Amino acid sequence: MKFLTLGLVLLSVITTVLCASKREILELTDSNFDTFVGESDEWLVEFYAPWCGACKQFGPRYEAAAKSIPDSLPVKLAKIDVDSSPGLASKFFVTRLPTLFHIKNHEVRQVDTKMKVQDIVNFLKNQEWENIEIWNGYFSPFSIVGTGVGYIGIFMKKLSNIPAWMVWTGLGGTIVLMIVSFGIAAQNGAFSDEDAPVTAGKSPSSPRPQKSRKVD
Question: Can you identify the CATH homologous superfamily of domain 21-161?
Answer without folding.
Answer: Glutaredoxin (3.40.30.10)
